[in-house]
Amino acid sequence: MPLPSVHTLENGMRIVLEPVASASTAAAGLWLAQGSRHEAPGENGMTHFAEHLLFKGTRRRHWAEIARAINLFGGHFNACTSSDWVKVYGTVIRRDLPEALDLLAEMFLDSTFPASEVTREREVILEEIAQYEDVPEDLCYEHYTQALLLPHPLGRPVIGTEELVSGFSAGALADYWNRVVTPRRMILSVAGAIDEAAVLEQAKRLFGGLTGGEPGQHGLDPVEGRRRRAMLDRDLEQVNFCLGVTGPKRQQEERFAWGIYDTILGGGMGSRLFDEVRERRGLAYSIGSSVTALHEAGYLTISGSTRPETAATAIEVCLEEVRKLAETGPTAEELATAKQQIERSHLLSLESLGLRTMVNGERELYATGHLTTEEVLARVAAVTPDEVTAIAREVVDFGEPALCLVGPVGKAKGVGGAGK
Asked: What's the pTM?
């Protein structure tokens, strides 16, 4: 696949365009490089709250008109916030793209944050926070990242806390959003059935007049992984666990080797964790690993769930597989299988225009450079056994990992002080 074209407006905003000749639809995403990790401590959750309010009215449209416009597009519009960014995105048929881009720009630049909607949406977000208590996997992951990353802002919840969200006023949210929305930190990514010249011309009209300097940001200091433990006692049948260590930054060339390491360790059926924890020992139904690569840091997470009486054994087996991979390195078969798995997954992802806009936008946001499909596959193919082994040893050298358990931890004897 050819590279997308990247255009920088005079005010510094970037436009990433990828025409796909075979497509009859188009996907668009509008990014702002502002996430929870950039917030001051008292602002934690403001970016996510503001994201909700982008759908709640602009100077031209009531929230009901925005909702109707989205429905007329087919309803494929959404928004999300992460530690590194916030974005609004959607997929439409070819002829609706100009109107959809108008709506994206209007939501980002002209939202009014009406006080009545802030009051209503506050309750929605408080329900969202409460929902974490009812989803043990989410609750476990949230407290695990806190155990690993706090006091760095990356360890704070993206959604904020009940106490802070309850206190955000409409004026404070509007002031915050207007301060952080600056063109140099905005990216529009569009892929599919598009006329590049027409989209670029529309982008200049919609965003070219936007001004603003760089706002002060938090969370740019180095990340030092911790080895804390969090035990949350809940009346559940299983103990959910997350454990892990710090990992790669998004810009690191080693991210390709990290991907192979993660695939071998816990990337689905056939991985070492799946084979040993589930298939050979029957200790868990759900088990696996993942790598999260962010701007200043990343982390490797092993997660699963098991009965309390087998929790200590399941966690120890996971750690033993981590140690074995560091001691022996990957086998030739494991390396070849992982490379093929990543290659096929990448090729399959190209069928989704939404994923293309996401990849293109994030490559621009994280300054990793745009790669052709051939270049990506060549980087994966070039990873050596020694590179994977070096990462495996780096994981072990971190020492005791951060750990969180959620469930009947009092019955999970032998796990970090639980059950004593």
From this structure: 0.91
